[in-house]
Design brief:
single chain; 365 residues; alpha+beta; Serine Threonine Protein Phosphatase 5, Tetratricopeptide repeat; Immunoglobulin-like; three-stranded antiparallel sheet; 20% strand
């Protein structure tokens, strides 16, 4: 029996969902022309990506609603809690970004309202691009809001490298512009918010690693929420073996350990199969050690050279004389972000940024 393929993400905006939007819009706005909306929204639907379909919904609403921007927002405010999908609700802030750029105050209030139903992280970015100083000032206020969705919007919407969106060139060049927002959120009680803050800081490490390291070195990590953000914000630098990043999380010292019985099995695989990495770490220290254990695979590339990808394994404290056995299974399969080529692939075990041993496996053609 063949595996059943998961539905495509874009099918969230299928015909049935568009009918749901039309039905609920008619409930809050009886004069709504549902037929014209559906004709406009479904035209060429099969060829559209998920984000194009989301944009099409707000465009279709604009095309058939004969009201001005403030009047339309009133109807969309009423529609928001009636939608049956948080992701689908992204068309609401998209409408604000598309048609409310000239009505700044009203639009900022709308984004704050709509973000609680899904997220307005993409929609706030045109406002940042259009008037960075004024928009950041509002977002700094959001970072102190009682609602975790609003606080997250302050961090997520201002990320310099937000996935599925354009980069914020000014923020990417000068991360200090968002420092007040990040400072307000560095000990946030919400994991939802903390993940965003960590991702925002990890974005910055791609362009200004020293700035992030200096910022976090100035924080008190006695608060567990702040320590969590620091650890996840520095994940890329930790994978690279950056000494300052490892020191911040307490793993800056060279590990006093011996690597035992490193193996990668099977030795030869076909694409789509799995490898098993296994090894032991024995402490040689008379005191407990904080260890960050990663592994790296040197992937064969089309031109014959290799490109190394580091994967997180485990962070733990190893007591004096203790031995810890570690194993990990990895699926070697095609990804949209990685194409595999046959040949000898080397696997390295790294502890506190230092390579302690290597093994290999062969990928068949």
């Amino acid at each position: 029996m063949s595996e059943q393929r998961a539905p495509a993400l874009k099918d969230i905006f299928n015909v049935e969902r568009l009918q749901h939007i039309a039905t609920e819009m008619t409930t809050v706005y009886p004069a709504f022309d549902a037929r014209s909306f559906l004709e406009h929204a479904t035209a060429g639907l099969a060829e559209l990506s998920v984000m194009q379909r989301m944009a099409r919904v707000s465009e279709s609403l604009h095309a058939v609603i004969p009201l001005d921007y403030p009047q339309t927002l009133e109807r969309l405010y009423a529609l928001a809690p009636r939608l049956n999908s948080a992701f689908v609700s992204l068309f609401l802030p998209h409408y604000v970004a598309s048609y409310g750029l000239a009505d700044f105050t009203r639009s900022m209030a709308a984004l704050k309202y709509f973000t609680a139903f899904g997220s307005a992280e993409f929609a706030v970015r045109p406002f940042l691009q259009h008037d960075l100083t004024r928009t950041l000032a509002v977002m700094q206020q959001w970072s102190q809001d009682d609602n975790e969705h609003v606080r997250r919007l302050a961090s997520e919407g201002s990320r310099p490298r937000l996935p599925w969106s354009f980069r914020l060139a000014e923020v990417q060049a000068n991360p200090a512009l968002c420092a007040p927002i990040l400072d307000n959120l560095k000990a946030d009680p919400s994991l939802y918010v903390r993940k965003s803050v960590a991702n925002h800081l990890n974005d910055i490490t791609k362009d200004h690693p020293e700035w992030v390291l200096s910022l976090i070195e100035g924080w008190s990590l006695a608060n567990p929420h702040t320590a969590w953000i620091a650890r996840h914000a520095l994940r890329s630098l930790i994978k690279q073996g950056n000494t300052r990043a490892l020191t911040i999380i307490g793993a800056g010292a060279r590990a006093e350990v011996t690597l035992h019985e490193l193996s990668v099995t099977p030795a030869v695989i076909n694409l789509g199969e799995r490898i098993n990495l296994s090894f032991g770490l024995e402490s040689l220290s008379s005191s407990a050690q904080k260890l960050v254990v990663d592994y790296a695979i040197e992937y064969v590339k089309s031109a014959g050279h290799s490109a190394t990808k580091v994967f997180k394994l485990k962070a733990f404290t190893l007591g004096p004389g203790e031995t810890q056995r570690i194993s990990r299974e990895q699926h070697i399969r095609e990804l949209t972000t990685r194409k595999h080529y046959p040949g000898r692939h080397v696997v390295h075990v790294m502890v506190n940024g230092e390579r302690l041993g290597s093994s290999e496996f062969e990928l068949r053609d």
